[in-house]
Amino acid sequence: MYPWLASTFTQLSARLAATKLHHAMLIQGPSGLGKTYFTQQLAQLLLCAKRQHGTACGACQACMLYQSGTHPDLHLVESEKQIGVDQIRDAIKKLTGSAQMSGAKVLIIQQADSMTESSANALLKTLEEPTAHTYLLLTTDKTERILPTIKSRCEKLVLPLPDLDMCINWVATQFNGEIDRNFAKLFSSRPLALLAELEQEQGFTFHDFTKGLTALSSGHITAVALAASWQEHIEKVLKWLQFWIREQFEEVKADQVILFRLNEQAIKTSGILQNPGVNKLLLITELLTQVSKINIR
Ligand SMILES: [Zn+2]
């Protein structure tokens, strides 16, 4: 288990052993925190026939089936867009009757906030009166979008966020390369997101980005020249620029009006970029010209 989620997992495991685990959990946390893995591990724990010291044994038939992705009493509902009512009805149907493996039945609903209103309504009765030995694990990073009727029937589990050191230390065990502390700050509570971003850097790093901004601010390079060398990385530049602006807002008291306008311009530019055939060089030059007006410390 991820170190920042380990104690929460242990607590749940102890409650399960004491048969005090709620049958419906709403697992909350930002994306990139490890919710999916946490929920999967919890599902395996629920299904395992020979739990040992608060963890799944990894060797019983239930664990074997879980690991091969074919456990007949584990059901998953997810969707890239919306979770439709038919998906929920199908899942509920699978939960009726007794478990095929004589253990628990588990339904995971990923990104439960993407359920339509009718999907959510279809789930209410099951949340209220589940079939025996049934656990419903709902996950979300947008709790505000979950209907109150769903929320009130679930136990809310807000996963803890790691501090910056824990985040960096963990990423360092997974990533073979330098981790810029300031860059990591942008993802402080989301280690998996930081790792994914670092793995994607390839050729143009956050360090190159901040070095370029400093050179621009101090007049060592012009906006036009910097834009020319960065135009191939415009998506990354835009994303990082928005992170960077947020950080400057917190650290620098001056230039807030410029920062505010710059942020708006960066968001607008991201939108324009979606159109085919846009002049990337022009867009990025305009942005960097604004950046050059900021006094970076
Ligand atoms: Zn097992």
Summarize the SSE layout with pairings.
Elements: H1 3-17, E1 24-28, H2 35-47, H3 61-67, E2 74-77, H4 85-95, E3 105-109, H5 117-128, E4 134-140, H6 148-151, E5 155-158, H7 164-174, H8 181-185, H9 191-200, H10 206-217, H11 223-230, H12 234-251, H13 256-272, H14 280-291
Parallel strand pairs: 1-4, 1-5, 2-3, 3-4
Helix pairs in contact: 1-2, 4-5, 7-9, 11-14, 12-13, 13-14
Zinc ion is lined by residues 48-50, 56-57, 59-60, 62-63.
Outline the structure in words.
The protein is an alpha/beta fold and 297 residues long. The protein folds into two domains: 3-158, P-loop containing nucleotide triphosphate hydrolases (Rossmann fold, 3-Layer(aba) Sandwich); 201-291. Helix content is 52%, strand content 8%. It is built from 14 helices and five strands. Strands 2-3-4-1-5 form a five-stranded parallel sheet, sandwiched between helices. The radius of gyration is 24 Å and the shape is elongated. The protein starts with a helix and ends in a 6-residue tail after the last helix. The model has no long low-confidence stretch (mean pLDDT 89). The site of zinc ion has 9 residues, from helix 3. Zinc ion (ZN) binds next to helix 3.
